[in-house]
Amino acid sequence: MLKPLTQFYCDCCGEIIKEPSQGRLEWLFVFDPAKFDYVTKEHRIVHDGRYSPRPRMNCYNLYGNGKIADAPLTKFLDAQTGMAELLSFIDPGPKEEPKYTGPGVKDLREYLEFMRRLTIPHYEEARLYWPQAIRDNFFDGGSETFVYDPVNLKRLIGEYEGE
Ligand SMILES: [Zn+2]
């Protein structure tokens, strides 16, 4: 079992990031004509290049139509600063952006998946078993947030791990 909110699966190579100091976050900036400003997309959790299990391959190489940005994983997991960092992607607030013109992320659902991985204990591992759990009606009868309750996520991992 992964150590919750400490270990993650790398979005580039698929291997485990063993500790926060070995990981980075990366995303792209793209211009959104509707907002008339830059928004972010393709938020990923990856190995810091120095810890990539693939020789000569940096795991944080996100190429696309936009500007690449990255930050240490530790900054976003920090109990003092993490939530402020994550929320500022959605809206930096009135000081930075006096007039609200919509979310600062291109795809809110994609961003919330990234955010859940970084903030909800056991979600990172449980999401692997999601399709199977849905097929098995594992979540049936629960409320909307039942599926994100860490107790249920841990139970889900126990059920499917090693199958
Ligand atoms: Zn990797």
Question: What report would you give on this structure?
Answer:
A hairpin with a 6-residue loop joins strand 1 and strand 2. This protein has six helices and five strands, in the order βββββαααααα. With 163 residues, the protein is α+β, with helices and mostly antiparallel strands. The strands form two sheets. A three-stranded antiparallel β-sheet has the order 4-3-5. It has a two-stranded antiparallel ribbon with strand order 1-2. The model has no long low-confidence stretch (mean pLDDT 91).
List the helices and strands and how they pair.
Layout: E1 8-9, E2 16-17, E3 23-32, E4 37-47, E5 67-72, H1 73-77, H2 82-90, H3 108-119, H4 123-126, H5 130-135, H6 150-160
Antiparallel strand pairs: 1-2, 3-4, 3-5
The structure holds zinc ion.
Number of domains: 2
- The dominant shape is globular
Sheet/helix structural class: alpha+beta
Helical amount? 25-40%
N-to-C series of helices and strands: EEEEEHHHHHH
Bound molecules: zinc ion
Percent strand? 15-25%
The stretches of 5 or more residues where confidence is low (pLDDT under 50) are none
Sheet bearing the most strands, described? 3 strands, antiparallel
Query: In angstroms, what separates the terminal alpha carbons?
Result: 13 Å
Number of strands: 5
Rg to the nearest angstrom? 17 Å
Mean pLDDT over the full residue set: 91
Give the strand order of the largest sheet, numbering strands 1, 2, ... along the chain.
Answer: 4-3-5
How many helices in DSSP terms? Answer: 6
